[in-house]
Amino acid sequence: MSDLFEGLSGIMKGLSGFMPQDDPNVKIMNVQSEINELRKKETEIYAEIGRQVLAEKTGLFPDLENKLQLVKISLQEAEQKLKSAQEEKLTIEAAKKAEEKTLTCPSCGTYNAEGIKFCQECGSRLGTLRCSGCGTELSYGTRYCGECGKKQEE
Ligand SMILES: [Zn+2]
Ligand SMILES: [Zn+2]
Question: Which residues surround ligand 2, an ion (CB under 5 A)?
Fold first, then answer.
């Protein structure tokens, strides 16, 4: 066989995308995934037996039951962490939205790019300031605070 021909047949084998079924590597891979599947099923059945036994009677396996209790506590803590991380995400997203709002001109409604201080359409001051009375965030140009009613200085 010429080197060229061998090279070509190697490329064709690669292109065909699968190895022959009698290849020991393929056999090992297949049987390993079968074993993994069966082990997983076995574990699930043991777990189900455990659940049913515990539902009937506790105290048979005190050490394991203690471990289970600890796992349950950790699980609750992890779920709490997940919840607060999700809340944090929502808060950040809301803050971002509020930020975008300040870029929308309160006078003419034109959307101005981030970092722009004055509306590119009408020249109004963009962004927010704090009410001199109560500290509530107000748009520039607001004359009376909606929260405390204080008149704002220009
Ligand atoms: Zn404007
Ligand atoms: Zn105010």
Answer: 131, 133-134, 136, 145, 147-148, 150
| Ligand showing the shortest atom-to-Cα distance for residue 144 | 2
Task: Report the predicted TM-score, pTM, of the whole model to 2 decimal places.
Answer: 0.45
Cα–Cα distance, 35 to 29 (Å, whole number): 10
Structure confidence at residue 1 (pLDDT): 47
Model pLDDT for residues 52-96, shown as the tens digit of each residue:
999 999 999 999 999 999 999 999 999 999 999 999 999 999 888
CB 96, CB 102: distance < 8 Å: no
The secondary structure of 84-97 as a DSSP string is: HHHHHHHHHHHHHH
> For 115-151, what is the HEC assignment?
CCCECCCCCCECCEEECCCCCCEEECCCCECCCCCCE
